[in-house]
Amino acid sequence: MEHAGAEVRRSLRTLSLCDTLSMFVLLVISSIFVFIMVLYLAMKAEQNRVRRKTRNRFLVEALHRDGLTRLYGREMGTLYMQCYGPTASVAMIMIGVDHWEDLVARKGTETAERLLRRISGALYLDAGSEELLIRWDDGRFLLLSYALTPETLKDRAERIDHLPITPLEPQRSREDVRTS
What we know:
Blueprint: H1 2-63, H2 74-84, E1 91-96, H3 100-107, H4 109-126, E2 131-137, E3 140-145, H5 150-161
Antiparallel strand pairs: 1-3, 2-3
Helix pairs in contact: 1-2, 3-4
C-alpha cells in the first residue's frame, strides 16, 4: 500500500511538473501572439495616420484656385472623379481656345489673360450645380459632370461652344476668339 501511495505521489509530481511546463509554454506562446497583434495594430494605426495626412494635404491642394481665373485646378478634378466616378459615369468636356499660342504671341500675354478671364467667367456662369469647371492649363478648361448622359453630352458641348463671350475689342467679332 505504501508502495502505491509513493507511486501516486510521484505521478502527481510528474503531472504537476508537466502541467506547469505546458502552462508556461502556453503562456509564452500567448504572449508572443499578443505582442504580434500589438505590433500589427500599431502598424495599421501608423498607416492610417499617414494616409489621413496625405489625404488632408491632397484636399488642401485641391482647394487651391487658379490665381488668374479663380477656377479649381486638376487636383479638384481628381477629387471629383474619386467621389463620383465609382458610382456614376462622369462626362468630360475639354474646352480650349483655338490657336492659343498664336493668340498669345500676336496679342500679348496681358490681352490673352484678359480673354482667359472672360471665357472662364462665361463658362463658370453657365456651369450647373452638378458640374465642375476646372482650369486644365493655358487656354484649356475641363468641364466634369455626373448628370450628363451620352445623349445630352453633344447638346451640352454645342451650348458651350455658343456661349456669349464678348470680344476683347469692340470692333472685332467673336470669330476672332473660337473655342472648341
